[in-house]
Amino acid sequence: MNKHATQAMTAAAIRDLDPAPAAVLTTVERERAEATLARILGTPGDDQVPEESGRPRLRRVLVLAGLALTGVALP
Amino acid sequence: MNADTSAQREREQRFREIYDSAYVDLLRFVRRRVHATHAEDVVGEVMLVAWRRLDDVPADMSAARAWLFGVARKTLHNTHRRETKHDAAAVRLAEVRDGLGDPGQHPDLVAHRVDIAAAWPLLSATHQEAIALSVLDGLNASEAATVLGISPTAFRLRLSRARRTLRRHVHSTSAGDSAPGVFSSDRSP
Prior knowledge:
With about 80 residues, chain A is mostly helical. Chain A has three helices and no strands. By secondary structure, chain B is mainly α.
């Protein structure tokens, strides 16, 4: 038997052993899939999440710097 | 405002199309790698990533499917690493049911299936994955390479090695049995 026939037979055997053979979703699975879809669509995508402006970060840096200076100044 | 609403609707429509066409394939992909009870949760996580990064999902549906499989693979690896401290996520095969062969099937194929089932666990997770992507998930070299994050050439090489190793394991596990003709060439000296 040639190499291609061997590979085809091996592939057929592996497909026979597929733990998730082709199947349509059951009604319950379909309902869960629909619920998951609805839940996902209810969350914002990355492009919809407002990006944090640089200002809060700057404010945090200034506050931390101020605290550090105070820590140095106070015994 | 109307433009925003329209863009949002288009975005949702595109995601629905991806979701509807890829959900079952993605579920099967995941079920081959984790217990069925966790599979839907993993698919939900992957689809959430796709929704959040919709602009990164390829327009072509085959490529989009491969992209989703790649995300699923990373998700499974992260979970697996947390649970077992190992990197690999093996692909499992169904168990061969003793005495329940399909009466219409060629005896060589039935015998070969038993050999494959015995040899499969001896493969490394990397080799299992390469064969599964090609045979079970039905991906071409380019798509499988996308899933694994390697080049198509590297995937072809990996698949070739995996097939060769599987043949060797089949040979060794079935040595002494009445060998199915399919591997007669491998068994000759």
